[in-house]
Amino acid sequence: MQLRSARLDEVELELVEPFETSFGIERHRRFLLLRLETDDGLEGYGECVAATEPLYSSETVATAREMIHGRFLPELLRADSLDPAQFLASTARYRGHRMAKSAVETALVDLAARAKGQSVSEYLGGRRRRVEVGVSVGIQPTIEQLVRRVGKYLEDGYRRIKLKVRPGWDAVPVRAVRRAYPDIEIWVDANQAYPPAAVERIRRWAVRERVAQVEQAFPERAIRAHAELARGAPFRVCLDESIVDAMSLEDALAAGAVTSLNVKAGRVGGLLTSRALAERARRARIPAWVGGMLESGIGRAHNVHLASLAPFTLPADLSASDRYYREDIAEPPFVLGPGSTLEVPKGPGIGVEFSERGRRRALKKSWTLLR
């Protein structure tokens, strides 16, 4: 295959409801969508998960746009191969910029799967037809609203609930949810909000409220604090932002700092890297799961395909489409099914169609490169 053209769109979608974490509140999500077209008419789509502000990550929409448009796509147009692994190898000299790389790599995987007449799941070696998912609940204005929101998601059919926490919004709201729903599985996610000195305080309320998993309690480089929290804990300690590549995972494993692994393809550089990280975790007998970053239906499709792989054994953070946006840019929507599951699209490629109407409504800027 030869690449004929590449189009990079900057779009903005309105969330169904505000989503608050320790980083702040999101009401709209602005992100980049990449469309690659080959000389024989195949199309592949990728999405960049970088946000407008460097809060979750040092990458932003602006930095990713510069790297994709100014570096990666010109290089791809000159390349003699559209192989995703070769792209990652050729761009390894560019330090970081994993979110930007992931947008290109996932589009290339979509193309490669379509060229073989396979779904992305089949291309990656997935076997599951449905993947188990849970829902992430942002920080709410009041505890009463939090309890009601959790109840609504349970009524919708979600089985696993993940609560966003931060200092000042942790023990009390988690206790309220536990008392209202004594038998549900609760995870918590701090997005690096706590200082390392908070280990024992987190441990006390997590044990008391029977929390099944504590995710990224401390800053990404605070491996020692995560290891201390994990030592003898009756709950899993999950790392997310701390794990960016194989080396960071090896360090966390050696330190005993990770007993659950959150893999986000958009954060670690793509689907191939995600698969390798999950396989390494499985060899270490560490359960892995696929995390989400408020993706549109394009990014969510890639994530659902990834979650179909055998190493991913815990429920993914990939809720149904109606959990996220008032109007998406991919069709058909993902619908929550039996057993708190989403169906893996059958393909070819990501198995969802790009909505031109949705694109026109969401589009802010667009750039096209031609061979």
Write up what this structure looks like:
This protein is of the alpha/beta class and about 375 residues long. The chain folds into two domains: about 5-115 and about 355-370, Enolase-like, domain 1 (2-Layer Sandwich); about 125-345, Alpha-Beta Barrel (TIM Barrel). The protein is about 35% helix and about 25% strand. The protein contains 13 helices and 15 strands. Strands 5-6-7-8-9-10-11 form a seven-stranded parallel β-sheet. Strands 3-2-1-15 form a four-stranded antiparallel β-sheet, sandwiched between helices. Helix 7 links the parallel strand 7 and strand 8. Helix 1 crosses helix 3 (about 100-115) and helix 2 packs antiparallel against helix 3 (about 100-115). The longest helix is centred in the N-terminal third of the chain and has 18 residues, at about 60-80. It is globular. The mean pLDDT is about 95.
Question: Tell me, what's the shape?
Answer: globular
Helix content: 25-40%
Q: How many domain regions?
A: 2
CATH architecture of the largest domain: Alpha-Beta Barrel
What percentage of the residues does DSSP assign to strands (E)? 15-25%
Strand order of the largest sheet: 5-6-7-8-9-10-11
- Overall pLDDT: 95
Pattern of helices and strands: EEEHHHHEEHEHEHEHEHEHHEHEEEHE
List segments where confidence is low: pLDDT < 50 over at least 5 consecutive residues.
Answer: none
Sheet of most strands: 7 strands, parallel
CATH class of the largest domain: Alpha Beta
CATH topology of the largest domain, which one? TIM Barrel
> So, the CATH homologous superfamily of the largest domain?
Enolase-like C-terminal domain
Radius of gyration: 20 Å
Work out the number of β strands: 15
